[in-house]
């Protein structure tokens, strides 16, 4: 299929008409690699059909350059094939020298320099044969890949183009741009003799779509077609190579594969480009290698110096690369396609690449380029003798950390460690810097490198400060090796009371870590609460170290419920008021403050603090991002906003998949809370089949998974088994001193299961105990829930009174879901069909819908047959789904919505599909019709 070459075909047709009238000409078809010269040349014989024009063809090839007169033989073979015997005699037998020199199988005569000698008689004889043939009918002579034509044939073609008059012939030669060879003077003669020079233009977007249709048999999506067109720059060879590779991989021409089309680097195309490059002289090859090494930093000055070219040689080599079709423009040293980079790199040896990268690093360093640019070159070098290399790599790592790229920083620092000159504290500081970068995405590597650094440090304070670079666990037990290391450096440093200044702060932070390491030991928890009380009503919170220690001690008071919720809230807020919100806090015990506020049912004021923390978090740190999302999920769950909490928890779990450890524990904890609130059996099953059961001995996670297992058993009617699991979990929590009724609310659930299995006495005892614990703790959510449990076991007016009291208490709570649950029970207890019952159920439905708990909404609808409890449909949508549907309602397309939100069109399609299902509509039209009613 030949596309958008009508102008070129028309010019050749015009030349043929002129030749028939005796005006012969040479047409040169040129352009860089892949522009379709050969395809166009193959199409030209169609112009001769029905016109009584004889076509002579020859295709040159690199492998046949040593085959003397190879192209001439092809042309005359096509002239003589099929001709009558007497005609062959007329044309050939009279030319004795011609037969002997050109068509004989004997080796042609050579001159004193070893070159083939071509008698003038032979040159004229060949032209005479063409003259005889053209007298009968015009000739269309086609020579492809003129740059590969053997020298004797090239000499004859140069002879011919000067003597085309009276031949009635059009000679069309295809010549690839950018090729130089010993026969250049002859090539130049031919090029300069051309009357017409045709350069096929790049394909348009419309032509690209036609090629896609031909390849796949179906039209391509607009986004896919644009991606193919832009990445190939309209070059037919590049385009067809990418499409063929996509088809081989089983991809379809859809929007979701647009990015694949942009990034694909077909191997066959790479090899063809590499072969073309290897055939070039040294200057363009060296310049291509320099462009590959310098990448985006390929300015003319650096490129010329790295390639070893003077300004004139640089411009000439740049022009050659452009003519070859490897760079976009002569003024812009940038490769046309990513596969060109691969081709250039594959044409270099490993030693050549390392030498160039090392030379590039030195050039950039001495030119004052930013450290990261120099470091990027050093990364490609196994070893370097530059005395400044380590400091440059450290400076680059600092820059990468500041811009939120810890993985990149770690790569620079690992490369710096390869420098054998670093010993002692210098090497220790480098190891500590590396561990600091790694703790955001590879905690195990962080611990390993800190352990390697500590023996190299000379003072107890330095060793202790290094140990604190290891991030603490929040809800799980730290690795024994880390705890042993903390004990060791703390013992060397001494107690905080005997120290001053920075050393005192280090000691306080060590105390915080070690006390938190005992948070599953009841004796250690009790000692921590006593230590907190000893600090007085207003513990000192001037330094970050004091705030870290107070957060750990306060967490002990929360777990044991030894302090009332109001006091926990007061002290926790004091800590946050004095602690700037940064992402670095996830590497300290300070996130424990969030757990305390969740347990105290006092999370309304923390949202802005967490939002600031999220804005400052360092991108690229898997653990950091996971923990920040977990905190958001915890706060949303504490407010009853389960659907939104699920989004954050699911994201945290995905982020924690690579480095599970601490991030995996807290992410799974957040997701179990969501699963229990939603009573989502599929999510519960996924959690139970997940990595949590196999990878952690954390008491918090163990308890959460037991809760989830009990929920699964209860859902399937195995009430005794569910009750046994809960009671065993409760005993384990009590034995560890974990008695907070908000964080570990197992008694209300166990009481309900006792009721279901027919043991009201045991149910009542647990309900009374829960009410007592909740009253002592004082958090509204705990007290309101305990009252609801008590009311469930109490009939008559007394039960209604308890439910009303629960409602009053929960209206002061941040947790709207718990209020909705109590309102449901109250609505059922009130007189059926009465106005108060309907109003209570309507409020419950609105709250449950806003929280994103469809199962509870269905229960409310079943309780009120009048339908008065119907919830607003938009309440079941997630925050992202509401945003997407709102933008669609404004008339935006999927692509426009994706651009607005900075995501892929595929993601928008998924959100819309989910919204259609939740709202019960069949598609975009019905959604747009529903939107005004949703927001009225």
TrEMBL record:
Key words, A-Z: ATP-binding, Nucleotide-binding
Superkingdom classification of source: Bacteria
UniProt xrefs under SMART domains: HTH_LUXR (SM00421)
Ranges for domain HTH luxR-type: 870-935
PROSITE patterns: HTH_LUXR_2
InterPro entries: AAA_16, P-loop_NTPase, Sig_transdc_resp-reg_C-effctor, Tscrpt_reg_LuxR_C, WH-like_DNA-bd_sf
Protein name: AAA family ATPase
């Amino acid at each position: 299929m030949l596309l958008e070459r009508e102008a070129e075909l028309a010019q050749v047709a015009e030349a043929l008409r002129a030749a028939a009238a005796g005006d012969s000409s040479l047409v040169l078809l040129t352009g860089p690699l892949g522009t379709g010269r050969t395809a166009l040349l193959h199409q030209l014989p169609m112009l001769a059909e029905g016109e009584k024009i004889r076509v002579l063809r020859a295709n040159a090839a690199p492998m046949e350059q040593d085959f003397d007169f190879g192209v001439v033989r092809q042309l005359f073979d096509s002239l003589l094939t099929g001709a009558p015997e007497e005609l062959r005699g007329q044309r050939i037998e009279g030319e004795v020298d011609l037969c002997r020199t050109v068509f004989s199988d004997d080796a042609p005569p050579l001159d004193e320099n070893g070159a083939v000698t071509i008698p003038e008689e032979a040159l004229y004889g060949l032209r005479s044969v063409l003259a005889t043939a053209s007298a009968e009918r015009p000739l269309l002579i086609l020579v492809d890949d003129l740059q590969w034509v053997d020298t004797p044939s090239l000499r004859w073609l140069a002879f011919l183009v000067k003597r085309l008059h009276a031949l009635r012939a059009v000679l069309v030669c295809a010549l690839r741009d950018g090729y130089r060879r010993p026969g250049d003077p002859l090539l130049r003669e031919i090029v300069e003799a051309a009357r017409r020079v045709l350069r096929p233009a790049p394909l348009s977007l419309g032509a690209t779509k036609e090629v896609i249709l031909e390849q796949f048999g179906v039209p391509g999506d607009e986004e896919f077609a644009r991606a193919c067109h832009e990445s190939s720059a309209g070059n037919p060879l590049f385009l067809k190579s990418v499409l063929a590779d996509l088809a081989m991989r089983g991809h379809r021409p859809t929007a979701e594969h647009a990015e694949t089309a942009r990034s694909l680097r077909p191997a066959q195309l790479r090899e063809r480009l590499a072969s073309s490059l290897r055939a070039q002289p040294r200057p363009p090859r060296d310049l291509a290698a320099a462009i590959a090494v310098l990448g985006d930093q390929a300015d003319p000055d650096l490129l010329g110096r790295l390639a070893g070219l003077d300004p004139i040689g640089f411009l000439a080599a740049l022009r050659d690369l452009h003519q070859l079709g490897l760079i976009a423009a002569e003024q812009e040293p940038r490769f046309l396609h990513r596969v060109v980079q691969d081709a250039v790199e594959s044409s270099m040896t490993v030693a050549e690449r390392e030498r160039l990268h090392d030379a590039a690093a030195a050039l950039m360093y001495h030119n004052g380029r930013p450290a990261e640019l120099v470091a990027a070159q050093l990364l490609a070098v196994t070893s370097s003798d530059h005395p400044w290399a380590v400091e440059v790599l450290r400076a680059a790592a600092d820059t990468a950390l500041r811009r939120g790229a810890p993985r990149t920083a770690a790569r620079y620092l690992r490369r710096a460690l390869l420098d054998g000159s670093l010993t002692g504290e210098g090497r220790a500081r480098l190891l500590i810097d590396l561990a600091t970068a790694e703790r955001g995405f590879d905690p195990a590597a962080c611990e390993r490198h800190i352990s390697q650094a500590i023996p190299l440090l000379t003072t107890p304070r330095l060793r202790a400060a290094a140990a604190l670079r290891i991030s603490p666990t929040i809800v799980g037990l730290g690795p024994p090796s880390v705890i042993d290391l903390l004990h060791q450096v703390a013992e060397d440093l001494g107690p905080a009371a005997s120290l001053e200044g920075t050393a005192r702060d280090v000691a306080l932070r060590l105390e915080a870590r070690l006390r938190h390491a005992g948070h599953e030991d009841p004796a250690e928890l009790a000692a921590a609460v006593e230590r907190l009380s000893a600090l007085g009503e207003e513990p000192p919170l001037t330094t970050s170290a004091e705030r870290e220690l107070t957060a750990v001690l306060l967490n002990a008071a929360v777990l044991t419920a030894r302090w009332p919720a109001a006091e926990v809230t007061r002290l926790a807020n004091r800590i946050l008021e004095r602690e700037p919100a940064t992402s670095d806090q996830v590497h300290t015990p300070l996130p424990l403050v969030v757990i305390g506020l969740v347990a105290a049912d006092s999370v309304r004021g923390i949202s802005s603090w967490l939002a600031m923390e999220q804005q400052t978090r360092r991108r690229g740190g898997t653990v950091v991002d996971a923990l920040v999302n977990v905190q958001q999920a915890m706060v949303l769950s504490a407010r009853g906003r389960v659907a939104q909490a699920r989004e954050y928890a699911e994201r945290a779990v995905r982020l924690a998949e690579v480095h599970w450890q601490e991030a995996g524990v807290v992410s799974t904890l957040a997701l179990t809370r969501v699963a229990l609130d939603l009573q989502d059996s599929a999510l519960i099953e996924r959690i139970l089949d997940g990595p949590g059961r196999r990878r952690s001995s954390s008491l918090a996670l163990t308890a959460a998974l037991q809760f989830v297992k009990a929920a699964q058993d209860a859902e399937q009617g195995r009430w005794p088994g569910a009750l046994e699991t809960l009671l065993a979990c409760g005993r384990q929590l009590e034995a560890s001193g974990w008695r907070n009724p908000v964080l570990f609310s197992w008694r209300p659930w166990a009481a309900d299961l006792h009721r279901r299995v027919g043991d009201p006495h045991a149910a009542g005892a647990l309900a009374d105990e829960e009410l007592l614990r909740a009253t002592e703790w004082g958090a509204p959510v705990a007290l309101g829930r305990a009252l609801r449990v008590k009311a469930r076991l109490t009939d008559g007016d007394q039960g209604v009174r308890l439910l009303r009291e629960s409602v009053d208490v929960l209206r002061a709570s941040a947790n709207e879901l718990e209020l909705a649950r109590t309102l449901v029970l109250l609505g059922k207890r009130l007189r059926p069909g009465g106005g108060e019952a309907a109003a209570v159920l309507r409020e419950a439905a609105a709250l449950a819908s806003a929280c994103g708990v469809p199962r509870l909404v269905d229960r409310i609808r079943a309780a009120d047959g009048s339908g008065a409890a119907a919830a607003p449909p938009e309440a079941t949508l997630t925050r992202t789904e509401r945003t997407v549907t709102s933008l669609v309602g404004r008339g935006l397309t999927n692509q426009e919505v994706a651009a607005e939100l900075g995501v892929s069109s595929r993601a928008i399609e998924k959100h819309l599909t989910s919204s259609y299902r939740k709202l019960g509509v069949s598609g975009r039209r019905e959604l747009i019709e529903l939107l005004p009613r949703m927001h009225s």
